[in-house]
Design goal:
Blueprint: E1 3-8, H1 13-26, E2 30-34, H2 43-52, E3 58-61, H3 75-87, E4 92-96, H4 97-107, E5 116-122, H5 130-142, E6 147-153, H6 159-169, E7 174-179, H7 185-188, E8 197-199, H8 215-221, E9 232-238, H9 246-256, E10 261-267, H10 271-277, E11 283-288, H11 293-299, E12 302-303, H12 305-310, E13 315-319, E14 322-326, H13 329-343, E15 360-364, H14 368-379, E16 383-388, H15 391-401, E17 404-407, E18 420-424, E19 447-452, H16 461-468, E20 472-474, H17 476-492, H18 499-507
Parallel strand pairs: 1-2, 1-8, 2-3, 3-4, 4-5, 5-6, 6-7, 9-10, 9-11, 12-14, 15-16, 15-18, 16-17, 18-19, 19-20
Antiparallel strand pairs: 11-13, 13-14
Helix pairs in contact: 5-6, 9-18, 13-14, 13-17
The structure holds NADP nicotinamide-adenine-dinucleotide phosphate (NAP).
Residues 289-291, 293, 329, 332, 365-370, 388-390, 393, 408, 425-428, 430, 438, 453-455, 476, 479-480, 483 line the site of NADP nicotinamide-adenine-dinucleotide phosphate.
Length: 510
């Protein structure tokens, strides 16, 4: 199991001590004293207090400006402070590869037995090839490191796989870290891919490196303590993706079912290269969201006939080395709408059939969710109109399902009937761009029901306006839970999914 270390980046000794207590209470195994963050740092006095009062194993790091540190420091003073940390009983010191040789020689005479020297190399530009990283690890090792630390920068999520390869094959303890939003999985899977330790921030907004999740997120959302070498990996592929609550909800379900599995966010730019690089059985299944559902449909080895007809895949599972695609969005969306209509005693025109049968359903959006909903609504007997920003996509979809297309900009004046249903499957109004709606409020009076697929936030501007206009509403959380049920049952091969746990998780404030 990799250790979880919280870097302490406060500017005063008092605050650093308080933060160390909070880090311990939050579940950290180790803290890192970032001396370069301290204002008016007095080595003997401050290190004396910080190390005397330590409650967790402690790494002392005094990062120079030339290697990403916060302040300009005289090199001799800096190395003297690190030597003092060794003398005062620090458990670890972290030194840069450039000075490691000299530093390690200088402490060799009175080196405490328990001390571990981390020798680090930081690359703030990119992530080199496996060959370059492997020879870097060897160089760090031969400089006398007890623990090799390689930090690189992710330009793409596939960069992380190279660091995983190096960590897995390294013969000495190694910390492999890929900075940036696209490198977050390097932290989440440290235990799985042979990492000795990884870092998590104490609070959001005061990270010591870009892409460092908070310790709370690492433990509560990503189930860090449950990840080991045999853990099966699942995750949501999307861009943007970090707004999604799926990891929190799905990990709660996995824990409840006692499964050795974890679900994370995958911030993916290029889906085919992601699937190509993360193709081992460890990566057992993927959920898929904006904007990748259609490419996913073309990238799977096999696609279930309904998903194929829709041209959109939101769920994939690996079976016998093949990636199998299907779609659970359509069940989620249509059943959320049907349930709300039934609750209001609104019937369709087919006895015993769907309450949408015979009704005019206007769908905003012609992406993955728009496709899924229009396909199933048509199957259930609704008449479907597609309104999309890119009119050609609306036209193509309308043709495929036997519906009508209109430009999104004309929707405001479109009301051929009094009792229509409106469904938003665009991302307009989704976090972080909340407070906007894809249609003006006055146009909503023609709809008996308004549905929004967006679930972050639950109360979108569209639904607030629709409620005020007197419509029944059905929200994205209802859809989310219904589509998640299908995914969890596929991923776990168990039925029924623990809906009470999932509902509690999706509605929680965390
Ligand atoms: P997608 O395939 O990328 O489609 C996005 C759609 O939004 C396209 O029709 C696009 O129009 C439209 N769009 C994007 N920005 C727009 C703008 N500024 N103005 C007007 N239209 C815009 O995405 P998706 O996977 O279908 O997801 C769509 C939404 O549904 C997202 O908010 C997602 O979170 C939500 N969703 C919710 C659930 C749930 O369980 N509740 C499940 C799936 C999806 P163009 O064709 O013109 O680009």
């Amino acid at each position: 199991m990799a250790l979880l270390c919280v870097p302490l980046v406060a500017s005063s000794v008092e605050k650093m001590l308080l933060d160390a207590d909070r880090a311990k209470a939050s579940g950290a195994d180790v803290v890192e004293l970032r001396l370069d963050c301290l204002k008016n740092f007095q080595p003997r006095q401050d290190l004396g207090v910080l190390l005397r009062e330590k409650k967790l194993p402690t790494i002392v790091t005094y990062r120079p400006k030339w290697d990403g540190g916060r302040t300009e420091i005289d090199e001799q003073k800096r190395l003297d402070a690190l030597r003092l940390a060794v003398e005062l009983g620090s458990d670890y010191v972290d030194v840069e590869l450039k000075v490691a040789d000299e530093f390690i020689k200088s402490i060799s005479e009175k080196r405490p037995e328990m001390l571990k020297v981390i020798v680090s190399s930081c690359n703030y530009e990119n992530t080199p090839s496996v060959e370059i990283l492997t020879s870097l690890a060897a160089k760090i090792r031969s400089a006398g490191a007890d623990i090799v630390k390689i930090a690189t920068t992710a330009k793409d999520i596939t960069d992380v796989s190279r660091v995983f390869q190096v960590c897995t094959s390294c013969k000495v303890p190694i910390i492999g870290l890929v900075m940036g939003d696209r490198g977050v999985i390097s932290r989440l899977f440290a235990s799985k891919f042979g990492g000795y330790l990884t870092y998590a921030a104490l609070d959001g907004g005061i990270e010591s490196a870009v892409g460092e999740p908070t310790i709370k997120k690492m433990l509560d959302v990503y189930n860090f303590r449950r990840v080991g070498r045999d853990t099966q990996i699942f995750g949501l592929i999307g861009n943007p993706v970090y707004h999604s609550k799926s990891p929190f909800v799905y990990n709660k379900a996995f824990s409840f079912l006692g499964l050795n599995a974890v679900f994370v966010h995958f911030l993916v730019d290029d889906l085919p290269s992601f699937l190509n690089v993360y193709s081992s059985p460890d990566f057992a299944g993927f959920s898929c969201t904006i904007p990748h559902k259609e490419i996913m449909c073309r990238s799977c080895d096999e696609v279930d006939p309904i998903a194929k007809a829709m041209g959109a895949v939101n769920t994939t599972i690996r079976r016998d080395g093949k990636l199998i695609g299907c779609n659970t969005d359509y069940i989620g969306a249509i059943s959320a709408i049907e349930e709300a209509l039934r609750a209001a005693n609104i019937q369709g025109n087919i006895p015993g059939g769907s309450p949408v049968a015979g009704k005019l359903l206007v769908i905003m959006g012609a992406g993955g969710t728009g496709k899924a909903l229009s396909y199933i609504a048509k199957e259930k007997g609704a008449r479907v109109v597609i309104a999309n920003r890119t009119y050609e996509r609306a036209e193509k979809l309308a043709q495929a399902i036997g519906g009508q297309a209109i430009p999104l900009s004309e929707l405001e004046d479109f009301h051929p009937e009094e009792e229509m249903i409106l469904a938003n499957t665009t991302s307009v109004g989704m976090y972080p761009n909340t407070g906007v709606s894809p249609i003006p409020k006055h146009a909503l009076k023609h709809y008996i029901l308004v549905f929004d697929a967006i679930y972050t936030p639950r109360d979108t501007q569209l639904l607030i306006d629709a409620k005020e206009a007197g419509a029944i509403i059905a929200d994205g959380v209802e859809m989310f839970l219904r589509q998640a049920k299908g995914q969890i049952e596929l991923y776990t091969n168990r039925s029924p999914a623990p809906m009470h746990i999932m509902e509690e998780a999706v509605l929680s404030k965390d």
